[in-house]
Amino acid sequence: MSTTMKALGEAARGRVITADDGDYDDARAVYNAMHDRRPAAVVQCVDAADVMAVVAAARNGGLDLAVRGGGHSVPGFGTVDGGLVIDLSMMNRVSVDPDDGTARVGGGATWGDVDHATYPFGLAAPGGIISTTGVGGLTLGGGIGYLSRGCGLSIDNLISADVVLADGRQVRASDEQNQDLFWALRGGGGNFGVVTSFEFKLHEVGDIVGGPMFFEVEDAAAILEWYRDFIADAPEQLGCFFAWQIAPPLPFIPEDRVGDLFCALVSCWNGPVDQAESVLQPLRDVAEVKAEHVDLMPFPALNSAFDGLVPKGMQHYWKADFVTDLTDEAIAGHVEHGKRTPYVSSTMHLYPINGAAQRAGADEMAFGHRDKNFAPVIAGMWPDPADNEANTKWVKDYYAAIHPHSGSDGGYINFMSSDDDHRVAANYGANYERLAAVKATYDPDNLFHINQNIEPSGRS
């Protein structure tokens, strides 16, 4: 191991942080504090050459290798015991070409970095709903967020990617180069290499009208029944998801309602501002709005509005599905367990993935769940490890109530927990066998296995 560390120190420009360094504990920490792992080294890569050096060290030393962008992985895939961590956070440069409507994004950038760089041009790349989320992890899993209905998933807007492979080479994947790899990257997760930069097509997104509307829990069933029909035909420029939310102490929350549980509709209208009132009025008509913060705002303001609920160091346990039809039975399960939401950061979000997100063919890229209409996630998040058993049980019980009505065995890989490895094939769907063949081509020894892992074809 000392030989490996010495070689890394000589080969990498970025810092090689080990247990001997005073900031080792900070360097090894990830967002989900359930994962308290001790890697042999965390390498803060500054360029692709650094990434290539760490990949070679892991391969030659027979060490486990974790890759970290934003560090938000619920299963803790951004860290590992005894192995090496590629920390891409220093590689966060975003370069915008406004004439071409594209951006080149470093593999360690967050969506906040992208929003900061693109907003002044009135542009955005479709990402998620939390600005501290890493671009790499979210994109490689698919990329569901506010703009999915109007602009498609993040992968639908990926033009190319620079990838360091298991053999140490860096290649470009696109529709013209390494097409099989490009196909696999768009939904296949971190199985095929380390993406050091992404090139995205951008969309016209500047100031949007949106934000949360809070309703009484007693209205949740009626709102969900209305929502499943409304969102099927709503204008595609409207992003809108259902959520449970314990009211935090914010200016728009009545003081006597702070700490109460509400259900919510969180909207993002990226159409003409003068149409926003008429588009959003049906949301206000479905039930009495008890509090709201819906206004004209910069898109980055909405995309960071929930950041405060998910600070680094919380305990996380999540479950998820893909859903074609939101049945009455599923709604009953949502209401029964949603009203037991245990903590202000815990929630269930029901994301719509229709509209533009359904335009790609099921086999056009690795993300094959193009016939699904919703992606629900039960996200348990709380600060105190003493509450792990009770809060994990809430997530499991909620999932057990709604999963039989999902119509699907698989879910969004970015929402999976560490005990969901038995769902891997279902999560990748009908494209799994083709993914396994691409894996055998680019990573036959499964060096990149700290992920929702795809076993290479023909490997016992």
Would you mind describing this structure in some detail?
This protein has 460 residues and is an alpha+beta fold. The protein has helices at residues 2-11, 24-28, 48-61, 111-118, 135-141, 148-151, 179-185, 220-233, 276-285, 299-303, 328-338, 388-402, 424-428, 432-442; strands at residues 16-17, 41-44, 65-68, 84-87, 94-97, 102-106, 123-124, 158-164, 170-174, 194-201, 203-204, 207-216, 238-246, 261-269, 291-292, 295-298, 315-320, 347-352, 374-382. Strands 12, 13, 14, 15, 16, 17, 18 and 19 form an 8-stranded antiparallel sheet that branches. A hairpin with a 4-residue loop joins strand 5 (94-97) and strand 6. Helix 8 (220-233) packs across helix 11 and helix 11 packs antiparallel against helix 12. The longest helix has 15 residues, at 388-402.
In terms of topology, how is this protein built?
Blueprint: H1 2-11, E1 16-17, H2 24-28, E2 41-44, H3 48-61, E3 65-68, E4 84-87, E5 94-97, E6 102-106, H4 111-118, E7 123-124, H5 135-141, H6 148-151, E8 158-164, E9 170-174, H7 179-185, E10 194-201, E11 203-204, E12 207-216, H8 220-233, E13 238-246, E14 261-269, H9 276-285, E15 291-292, E16 295-298, H10 299-303, E17 315-320, H11 328-338, E18 347-352, E19 374-382, H12 388-402, H13 424-428, H14 432-442
Parallel strand pairs: 2-4, 3-4
Antiparallel strand pairs: 1-2, 5-6, 6-10, 7-11, 8-9, 8-10, 12-14, 12-15, 12-16, 13-14, 13-18, 17-19, 18-19
Helix pairs in contact: 1-3, 8-11, 11-12
